[in-house]
Amino acid sequence: MTCSESQKRIDSFLDNEVDLATAQEIQRHLEECSACEPFVADRLALRHCLQTPELRFVPTADLRSRIHAQLQKEIRPPSAHFNWLPRLQFPNWILPTLAGAAAVLIFWFGSATFFSRVRWSNEANSTLIEQLVSNHLRSLAANHLFDVASSDQHTVKPWFAGKLNFSPPVFDFSEQGFKLIGGRLDYLGNEEVAAVIFQHQNHYINLFVWPGDQSSPLPDTIFQREGLNLYGWEANGLTFWAVTDASPETLKTFVDLEKQRMGK
Known about the structure:
By secondary structure, the protein is of the alpha+beta class. It is built from seven helices and seven strands; from the N terminus they run H-H-H-H-H-E-H-E-E-E-E-E-E-H.
């Protein structure tokens, strides 16, 4: 990849809008090309300025309610009721046949729904894992691990206040070998998430946090992808995903520390 190609895609790369293969190409180029460093630094500075709370528009509760009401009208138009169907009379012998056919249809639709949900779940997991891996690699390649650099949890945690509609837990485990080094805002799809950053020896851990889905809680989940280890879980109404190139055992130790501190 040339400098020109890299610079054309750098905004999409920083916004996580490129696929994993392209992200890895850009990452390799940025690691090897010192000529692109000033350009990337400028884009990161602009990105940081655009994330300031003063530039954010926060809709009023009344505006939210009116938008929600209008969307409900668009999504769920009033249903029409028809009473013109005549009352049908069936002979007694056909009722068992219809009941059997109905049972077959219910089983078929139920099976189709189940397998479509499983397929959707697998596809959603695959997309999420790809985005997490891409975000982790991008943060390392662009030298943009954090927006706020600090090993003090009382500095990092308040920094997220006003930038997100939830409060991510922030702890420091320096005594156990996992040093808090900062935090940043990141994106998964179009949603803003928190990223809390830790360092263990020469390895970095990105801990991504966002509100959990109460209707579909996430069980403890482990993945390995592109030489990275990922561990996802839920606690206190939040979803957590830790991503690192450290060993699975090291990652599990870190996750256990987080769970213990949160009281899970």
